[in-house]
């Protein structure tokens, strides 16, 4: 049985469209099983919409990515289970709550979050709360 990790939208979108660190993100698919809060699909739709809106990708490429996402297997964690913890982490880091759901899911499952969210990683690096900092790993170094 492969180890399960939590991945956030910043990693999964790299599976769908070419970005910096896409090859590293794709290589995770060969080695791990994945979990994520149930909001991941909405976040990925939003990211691909933004990329299409800005002209970074064609609408057809965004739709192809969403079709491919249907085949990605995740253990989905109910965001309902993570409400209070995500709020507290958001307050602690002064960071958007939807990003914090992923880290809370990792702690909830006893695993790590692999992320390419450099802003969140910077904020985590300044906190003394090791239960959070030890649960987040930068995609670049994982």
Summarize the amount of helix as a percent range: 55-70%
Overall pLDDT metric = 95
Low-confidence stretches: none
Number of strands: 5
Q: Could you characterize the architecture of this molecule?
A:
- The chain has helices at residues 9-16, 22-31, 40-53, 59-69, 83-93, 97-109, 118-125, 130-133, and strands at 4-7, 33-37, 74-77, 113-115, 136-138.
- It has a single domain (4-141), classed as 5'-nuclease (Rossmann fold), CATH 3.40.50.1010.
- It starts with a strand and ends with a strand.
- 56% of the residues lie in helices and 13% in strands.
- The protein is built from eight helices and five strands.
- 32% of the residues are buried.
- The longest helix is centred in the N-terminal third of the chain and has 14 residues, at 40-53.
- With 142 residues, the chain is of the alpha/beta class.
């Amino acid at each position: 049985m492969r180890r399960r990790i939590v991945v956030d939208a910043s990693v999964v979108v790299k599976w769908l469209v070419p970005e910096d660190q896409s090859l590293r993100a794709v290589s995770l698919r060969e080695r791990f099983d994945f979990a994520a809060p149930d909001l991941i699909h909405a976040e990925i739709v939003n990211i691909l919409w933004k990329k299409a809106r800005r002209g970074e990708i064609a609408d057809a490429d965004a739709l192809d990515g969403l079709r491919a996402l249907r085949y990605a297997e995740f253990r989905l964690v109910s965001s309902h289970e993570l409400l209070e913890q995500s709020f507290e982490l958001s307050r602690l880091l002064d960071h958007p709550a939807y990003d914090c759901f992923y880290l809370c899911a990792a702690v909830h499952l006893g695993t790590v979050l692999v992320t390419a969210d450099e802003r969140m990683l910077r904020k985590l690096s300044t906190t003394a709360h090791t239960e959070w900092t030890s649960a987040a790993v930068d995609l670049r170094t994982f």
